[in-house]
């Protein structure tokens, strides 16, 4: 029973384009994969092939043709004979046969004798997520991401060094001052510890207190020598009082599904290997697991 032959030809062409792109030869050659390629044989008969590409290396032209059959049953000997007949009078062709399900024993023997590579080109199945010895491969990764937002500062009161203010500013001020500015413009310097950070970074450093994990908190920070500065001010301070809120962390599940990235698989029956082609250009080669 036949399915959509054109769609299958496109699928086979797509996977081979990915393989050619991964080969070093394509760094030097712009190889074009052609569909329904017509070639006139030595008898003057026009022959059509489902997929064709060629490239030149060291003065020699290498030509490959792929016969694609989208069948739900194994390929018979007659289909291999038909391909042999098509290429008999066209020199220097490398013939390849591609199908979904496989080949009858007679077809495999005839193809091997005539140096025709047999491929099973298909979409993924459960066997592609098993190693050759039956060990399961990772298909999905489930992650629970716990996200903790930084603290939200609701009030910030710097404690002015009154003696410095009287001497340097010539004014008498209370021990508290009010400032304004963006949280990344206002900087706190604690010279006791050699630290300098903005209000934005301070929010990221604030942690739970008193055994609570989230909610409203107040913190007092004191130091002998410190400064608070902004675009148009710089005051000497002895510390600050800060009120802040920590929201309850939340968990967001995430699933990485590698199977969605696997475009298709090519099995090389004579070699006993297969190549898995992923969307990001990664090609993975494995042994074909034995049938159980």
Automatic annotation (TrEMBL):
Residues 49-119 form the Restriction endonuclease type IV Mrr domain. The keyword Hydrolase applies. Keywords: Endonuclease, Hydrolase, Nuclease. The keyword Hydrolase applies. One of its GO terms (molecular function) is endonuclease activity. One of its GO terms (biological process) is DNA restriction-modification system. It holds the Pfam family Mrr_cat. This is Restriction endonuclease. The lineage of its organism: Bacteria, Pseudomonadati, Pseudomonadota, Gammaproteobacteria, Pseudomonadales.
């Amino acid at each position: 029973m036949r399915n959509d032959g054109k769609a299958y030809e496109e699928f086979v062409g797509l996977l081979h384009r990915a393989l050619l792109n991964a080969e070093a030869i394509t760094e030097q050659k712009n190889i074009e994969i052609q569909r329904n390629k017509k070639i006139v044989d030595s008898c003057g008969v026009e022959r059509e092939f489902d997929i064709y590409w060629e490239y030149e290396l060291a003065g020699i032209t290498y030509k490959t043709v792929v016969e694609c059959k989208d069948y739900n049953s194994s390929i018979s000997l007659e289909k291999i004979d038909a391909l042999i007949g098509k290429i008999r009078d066209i020199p220097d062709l490398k013939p390849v046969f591609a199908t979904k399900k496989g080949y009858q024993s007679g077809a495999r023997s005839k193809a091997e004798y005539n140096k025709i590579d047999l491929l099973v080109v298909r979409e993924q199945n459960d066997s592609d997520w098993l190693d050759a010895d039956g060990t399961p491969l990772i298909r999905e990764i489930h992650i629970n991401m716990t996200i903790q937002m930084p603290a939200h500062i609701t009030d910030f009161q710097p404690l002015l060094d009154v003696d410095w203010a009287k001497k340097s500013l010539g004014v008498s001020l209370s021990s508290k001052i009010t400032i304004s500015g963006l949280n990344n413009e206002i900087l706190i310097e604690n010279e006791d510890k050699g630290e300098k950070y903005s209000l934005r970074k301070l929010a990221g450093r604030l942690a739970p207190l008193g055994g609570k994990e989230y909610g409203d908190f107040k913190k007092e920070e004191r130091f002998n020598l410190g400064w608070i500065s902004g675009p148009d001010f710089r005051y000497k301070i002895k510390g600050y009082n800060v009120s802040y809120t920590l929201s309850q962390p939340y968990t967001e599940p995430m699933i990485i599904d590698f199977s969605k990235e696997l475009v298709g698989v090519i099995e090389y029956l004579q070699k006993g290997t297969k190549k898995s082609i992923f969307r990001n250009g990664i090609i993975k080669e494995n042994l074909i697991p034995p049938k159980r």
